[in-house]
Amino acid sequence: NAGVTQTPKFQVLKTGQSMTLQCAQDMNHEYMSWYRQDPGMGLRLIHYSVGAGITDQGEVPNGYNVSRSTTEDFPLRLLSAAPSQTSVYFCASSYDENAGYTFGSGTRLTVV
Amino acid sequence: GQQLNQSPQSMFIQEGEDVSMNCTSSSIFNTWLWYKQEPGEGPVLLIALYKAGELTSNGRLTAQFGITRKDSFLNISASIPSDVGIYFCAGSNNYGQNFVFGPGTRLSVLP
Prior knowledge:
Distance between the termini of chain B: 40 Å
Number of helices of chain A: 0
Low-confidence stretches of chain A: none
Oligomer: heterodimer
Helix content of chain A: under 10%
Number of strands of chain B: 11
Number of strands of chain A: 11
Structural class of chain A: mainly beta
Order of helices and strands of chain B: EEEEEEEEEEE
Strand content of chain A: over 45%
Strand content of chain B: over 45%
Distance between the termini of chain A: 36 Å
Shape of chain A: globular
Radius of gyration of chain A: 13 Å
Low-confidence stretches of chain B: none
Order of helices and strands of chain A: EEEEEEEEEEE
């Protein structure tokens, strides 16, 4: 099993550009989430999904969209990148809503 | 929103020493998780706690779910260099997706 795979690992965007961060898991997990990690702030939940076709907002959803057309994939879209979105983004999945999550290795995004 | 505090923010210890860190919340939680993150990687789950007072071990790591349900503790015994990393706690007060993460405790182990 590859676990949770995130691509790309690094990305530089110009302000106003859009892009999609990819996340795929091969563990047949129903629950998937996107977090951003900023220095000294831990991880903050952006969006999450409890199954294919179902998504909901987390703590910091503004400027991001998600969709969950399949169990395996949970892409995160930045609509119009801003410098405040410079961060490390982690995708995570879990087999149960109250169980620990398996995290991907992250995408480091810089918006200039 | 909910916030977790972790203490200490960072610590430098000698190899072989024991380590204690804690996580506190102003809210009651039903679940506590402890993760470790190494540079360039995502967090890795160490221990999950589901019941007030629960004490759970994973090798040299032991974590406890505080009886007030507002705190949790992680101990590492006989530290080794590979224990270096950032340790995060995460808590949830509902049976859903909304885990809140603490800011982390950065551990450095000196040989």
